[in-house]
Amino acid sequence: EGDEYVQLRHADVPAGHYRKFVLREGRVVGAILLNDKARVGAITQLIERGVDVSEHAGRLLDDDFDFQSLL
User: Fold this and answer.
1) CA–CA separation, 59 vs 23, rounded Å?
2) How far apart are alpha carbons 70 and 42 in whole angstroms?
3) pLDDT per position as a tens digit, 24-68
4) Buried-state track 16-42, b at ≥16 Cβ within 10 A, e below 16
5) Which ranges constitute the DSSP H helices of the chain?
6) If you ran DSSP here, which 8-state letter would residue 35 be given?
7) What is the C-alpha separation between 26 and 57, in angstroms, rounded?
8) At 3, is the pLDDT very low, low, confident or very high (cuts 50, 70, 90)?
9) pLDDT exceeds 70 at position 15
10) In b/e form, how buried is each residue of 52-70, taking b as 16+ CB within 10 angstroms?
């Protein structure tokens, strides 16, 4: 029950972007970002700090989502 993983994915083939987030208990535990270097630092910090992003899960894949606001 508490060990369930949620995967969020978005691909923009023409732009060459791919994003995948893996959440467990509302926290990002893994991510793949292709051609999206600008977000890597903030997402790494979310993972390291174990920040609960469950209230924002529906927006994590949005191009304009501000990951810094969660830190």
Assistant:
1) 13
2) 9
3) 999 999 999 999 899 999 999 999 999 999 999 999 999 999 999
4) eeebebbbeeeebeebeeeebeebeee
5) 40-49
6) S
7) 8
8) confident
9) yes
10) ebeebeeebeeeeeebeeb
What is the number of residues in the chain?
A: 71
Residue 8's CB: how many other CB atoms inside 10 A? 15
Banded pLDDT at 2 (limits 50, 70, 90): low
> Which amino acid type is present at position 63?
D
Lookup: tokens for 24: 């467990």
User: Which of 19, 11, 22 has its CA nearest to residue 46?
Assistant: 22
> Under a CB-based contact definition with an 8 Å cutoff, are residues 67 and 48 in contact?
no
